[in-house]
Amino acid sequence: MLEIDAVRLNGSAGNLLDAVREAGSLLVESGAVSTEYIDSMLLRELEHSTYVGNQLAVPHGTSGTRGLIIRSGLSFVRYDEPVDWGGRPVRFVVGIAGKDGHHLEMLARMAIAFSDLDVIAKLAAAESAEVVLSVLGDVRR
Known about the structure:
Elements: E1 2-8, H1 16-29, H2 36-47, E2 51-53, E3 56-57, E4 73-84, E5 89-97, H3 103-113, H4 117-125, H5 129-136
Parallel strand pairs: 1-4, 3-5
Antiparallel strand pairs: 2-3, 4-5
């Protein structure tokens, strides 16, 4: 579900909402969601933070916008300078779009991956999208 063209190693967002938009745009560009899904991701973030810990946020849409998801997909954005996520530093933003409830499984896989400090260090040091895909392994399926 995480494809090479949905990985960005040099995120440019300077704030939380722009980071959500950046992750959402990659989902749109990969063909996983319609452009309106980004608005749903922003609404979800305003309702409830998608920060999960260990410098990771996983923005995703609200439950009422399932029709905006074309297929399940992930996006990955890494920031050199952490984005302030409600007072918490975020270097990794993983956008999630899950078709037919698949988002819960993807959220769980990301949480497990980012509970491993070795995985976080490898993702922070990754010099290519291919390395990110390799490190995340099963998470992207």
